[in-house]
Amino acid sequence: MRLEQRRPRIAWLALFVLVFGLGVERPEGLGDVTDIRHWSYPDYTRVVIETTRPIDVSLYELPPDTEHERPQRVYLEFPGIWVGRDYPEPIPVKDGLLRAVRVGQNTLTKTRVVIDVESYERYRLLQLTAPDRVVIDFFRARSGAKPSVPGEKSDVRLPLAFRPIRKVVLDPGHGGKDPGAIGIGELKEKDVTLLLAKALRKELEAQGFEVALTREEDRYLSLEERTAKAEGLGGDLFVSVHINASQRKTLSGIETYYLDEKAEWQSVRVAARENGIDPRAMNALQRTIAQLRIAEVSGHSRRLAQDVHRSMLSGLQKKYRDLVDLGVKQGPFYVLFLSSMPSILLECGFVTNIDDAKLLRDEVFLQEAAAQIASGLSAYREKASAVAVGALP
Ligand SMILES: [Zn+2]
Q1: For the chain, which end, N or C, has fewer CB atoms within 10 Å of the first or last residue's CB respectively?
Q2: Distance from the CA of 242 to the center of ligand 1, in angstroms?
Q3: pTM to 2 decimal places
Q4: Confidence class of residue 65 from pLDDT cuts 50, 70 and 90?
Q5: Would you say residue 289 lies in a domain?
Q6: φ, ψ for residue 376 (rounded to 5)?
């Protein structure tokens, strides 16, 4: 009796779904796209697709289809991801490199992201965790090809070894809702890094460098926004400024990092903290680094790290004799591996150590540290320009 009464209702429901839901029912157990973002810079455009789970993404390139007046396209397949009809309209980019990003449900269990491209030289695909996201960078043709944006000046990039060093991009770590490490007396890393970066800018400008900062105030930047900005600022050197922290309150001192896929466990832990991810998730990140072509930049970054570290330590230890030298190290820092210029990350003392924290609150110390870092960068610039002049025909 009950069954008979229910059957018509189920049939009616099915019809309702078919007609009003257009027959598309979401299968169980799929993940979602939570956000799609893009940033345009002179050299490249970055597209980030954030999802609720890790994906085994595949990328395909399609040539332009002149017969149907379709541009060159790149598409990515996201198995196990549902978007349904969440993105009915293309997301316009229109920056001369990319036209638009289109997202749709390709099959019941697969989402397809199509990127309409004007022209590009190469792309870089990265997958990152916490949150899970796919990052695709499209690079503009460097030389030979005409820039697609009218009126834009052509940027013919020399190989790193021959490029004169003019502009330094400074990256004060953390900011806004991300305080970074919090130490003795609530001393916040984000405040110290900004003060130190601004002092460093003054010193560098006095030595004839051009300087740009990734942030000027107490503002939050996501890691991909930060790195996109750092690269977009078009510098010749990149310095990320951080302050260390440790469970061991006795640990103190200064260390300088450059990017390398080989890293000790301690470095991986520091990098995990700076990347804002669990140390256990670092394996995947290190695999990503191994796939990147970092060889050209890596040697320059190592020399830059050595010059800056040496200058900083020998300069500061004249006045601050107890300052501990923790050395130059290799580490998988996200902010470094997305950069195409020689790049280093400084950990200028520990907010969790009583002696270091005292120094980090002292403007005179920060001023002195800035001066020594700047003279290290100057030393590197001199050597690099000597190499460039000697090697050019
Ligand atoms: Zn930090």
Answers
A1: C
A2: 4
A3: 0.74
A4: confident
A5: yes
A6: -65, -40
